[in-house]
Amino acid sequence: MSDVSSAEEATAKHGSSTAESIKSFVSGGVGGIAAVLVGHPFDLTKTRLQTAAPGTYTGAIDVVKQTVARDGATGLYRGVVPPLLGVTPIFAVSFWSYDMAKLLIYKVTPNRSSQDLSIAEFAAAGFLSAIPTTLVTAPVERAKVLLQVQGQGQGGPQYNGVFDVVKHLYKEGGVRSVFRGSTATVLRDGPGSAAYFAAYEVTKKLLTPAGADPSELNLGAVILAGGTAGVAMWSIAIPPDVLKSRIQSAPSGTYSGFLDCARKTIAADGVAALWKGLGPAMARAFPANAATFLGVEASKKLFEKYL
Question: How far apart are CA 67 and CA 262, in angstroms?
């Protein structure tokens, strides 16, 4: 088989048709919904640790105790509506963008010796996937963060829900206010997505028996690979995530940008503040992302079976 035909075979395998694009889009959305249902309490805990004044909480367990005492168990799902409303487009765009980025890599490297992408190429596709995804992620997370920090003693407006948040933000500063934190989101999700998808693909290959296709892995292996991907992402994403949370939750004018937020955070709370929320983020990383990829792969199999 020639190099060109090998690349063409890979292109066909990864899907260039409209049907394959739709499959990637919808499957990503299903995976995202699974991730939110499993991971939101961990995410709320992380965000409150990152944004609360020093001394508010003694740690992640204290966040949970205070939240449940004040709002009941349902308080752990405060702010869940924005990610649930936005999760389908966020994850749908992410997984669609990832598949399109892989296809792009094949197209710009026609004289390949192998149709298998390298670890660096998987990482590059993951990084590229974060760029269009930010258009959806940034405003959804802006609303989510504001709802999550509400009720922990901070001043500022009190919102009745996600639509009230968006209405207030737009009235306050237009589209710019709604999209505050976009730079921090890209700086978090670019490297994070590179690690995320590369770790998933590498782990799948390691778990695949000789002569078998990674796409035929059982669900247990998918869960392990997905959980590993989540751990890989959050191992490097916490510092920009801390800054993103602070930028998105602070009153207008508090920070002039990402670097200003980093400087003021370190000056006020020390370098260790950049790793606030690491515990709950890592606790969430495995189960939430195992659920994500389980949802993605299971929905793809349903597509293949019935469509």
Answer: 28
